[in-house]
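FIELD: query
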Amino acid sequence: MKKKTLVPLIIFLLGICLVSLIVYKTDTHEKEQRHITAQLNVATYGEQIKNEITNGIEITDTLKQILISEDGEIHQFETIAGNLMSDSIESVQLAPNGVVTDIYPANENEAGKIDLIHDKDRGKISCYARDNHTIITQGPFKLKQGGYGIAVRNPIYLKDKNGHEYF
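FIELD: result
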């Protein structure tokens, strides 16, 4: 090959290599940025979900203490539940013997009055919480009243006159 032809060919090939390297580095940088963004989103949403579940547990613990101190009765449920509500909590429920009897807010939540122990979707985990004296979270699941939710269930045990616990 002649020198006149060889020099432009080498410059052309070097240019292609340089453009390919720039494209590769740009693509790699964009992938790294998407990966970092995804990690930050996961951490942020994970922390938000953790905080909302913790808030739900705190609410159930408060209701538990009220019920224990009042021997299983809760007076002014609507007022107490309304005061416990937050942005992340959409409803508060009481379920004596596993059957939901009280829901706050009541509007549009009446379909939520179910037997948690015998419900095909909620029964197994509700029985586990009851039988193991432990707080559980369940979900996400389809709500009877529409939409999806996550539930925090906190079984409560009272003591009879002989000091024996009952659910």
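FIELD: remark
The chain has a mean pLDDT of 91.
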